[in-house]
Write a structure and sequence with these properties.
By secondary structure, the protein is mostly helical. The protein contains 12 helices and 3 strands, in the order H-E-H-H-E-H-H-H-E-H-H-H-H-H-H. It is globular.
């Protein structure tokens, strides 16, 4: 028992291999990902503020969309700031505790987002296939209950994966073959046979990803069939919303299935897929939802007043009133 404890605590930090060792390339990557991260924060926070500010968007669909934007901000923040710091540092190290925390929060937000996307598909199914009872079925209590359930599910999933990982003994190799700590590359460093753990990871993360993906595809298949009976305008709007959801689902779950639905073997594409998953996808979500959603575009225009602040608009109204009174006959 004591020998196992010594092995476990012998490694106090890990070295993140990162994306490149060339200083010039790292500087370019720093600028690129800094811009991507700032745009991710701005885009997703803007969506949350717009939904809160606009009473017309206080519906179940936009409640879940604001949750998605919040999760995307958290998801990107788990890995990108550390990656940016490492681009400017020669010692790309992370403490054992920091590595565990990164794994825990990464899987917490990722799994919660998978469950949220599934709930959003159910929301669209009810809205399109049962519109007369939509607000009765998806009432505020149900929405809050679903939101609490997906966060609880993400927490349980993350605790299970992180718990299995930190119980392994780590006594030698310290280089994590990625730019952040994730379960597959970290367990490769364990000083023991990890086959059983790898199977558990595949059956946990991989199964969740595949099952949710199948449920989502079936849900949208039913929605598309039901849309054939709709009028052209209503069908176009519903198709636009569903297309946005399907795009996000494909981008997000594609990574999860690729990384977690196989034993812990390293592919050269893993880093590229991981970059897309942790840094790019959270940026694409606000773009996809705002560009394809007329209600969001109108709400954004209303929020910004079409380039006219409240004070300037009042000033224009006042000037028009003065001109009008000046031209009226005395």
């Amino acid at each position: 028992m004591s020998h196992g404890e010594n092995l476990t605590t012998s490694v106090t930090e890990f070295i993140l291999v990162g994306l490149s060792n060339d200083p010039g390339t790292q500087l370019v990557l720093f600028v690129v990902f800094l811009v991507v991260y700032l745009l991710t924060l701005a885009g997703n926070i803007l969506i949350v503020v717009t939904i809160i500010h606009n009473q017309g968007l206080h519906t179940p669909m936009y409640f879940f969309l604001s949750n998605l934007s919040f999760i995307d901000v958290c998801h990107a923040t788990v890995t990108v700031p550390k990656m940016l710091a490492d681009f400017l540092s020669t010692a790309k190290t992370i403490s054992f505790g920091g590595c565990v925390a990164q794994m825990f929060f990464l899987h917490l937000f990722a799994c919660t987002e998978i469950f949220l996307l599934t709930v959003m598909a159910y929301d669209r199914y009810v809205a399109i296939c049962n519109p007369m009872h939509y607000l009765t079925i998806m009432n505020q209590k149900v929405c809050l209950l679903l939101a609490g359930t997906i966060w609880l599910g993400g927490t349980v999933h993350s605790l299970a994966l992180t718990g299995m990982t930190i119980k392994l003994p780590y006594c030698g190799p310290q280089k994590v073959d990625n730019f952040f700590c994730d379960v597959p590359p970290v367990i490769r460093l364990a000083c023991t046979d990890t086959y059983v753990i790898e199977i558990l990871i595949v059956s946990n993360s991989g199964l969740i990803s595949v099952v949710c993906f199948v449920v989502l595809v079936v849900s949208y298949g039913i929605i598309l069939v039901s849309l054939r009976k709709r009028l052209a305008e209503g069908r176009r709007k519903a198709l636009s919303t569903c297309a946005a959801h399907l795009t996000v689902v494909t981008l997000f779950l594609g990574h999860c299935i690729f990384i977690y639905s196989r034993p812990s073997t390293s592919f050269s594409e893993d880093k590229v897929v991981s970059v897309f998953f942790t840094a790019v996808t959270p940026l694409l979500n606000p773009i996809i939802y705002t560009l394809r959603n007329e209600d969001m575009k109108q709400a954004l225009n209303k929020l910004f007043g079409s380039g006219c602040t409240m004070r300037r608009c009042r000033g224009k109204v006042g000037r028009r009133a003065q001109v009008k009174s000046h031209h009226q006959p005395g």
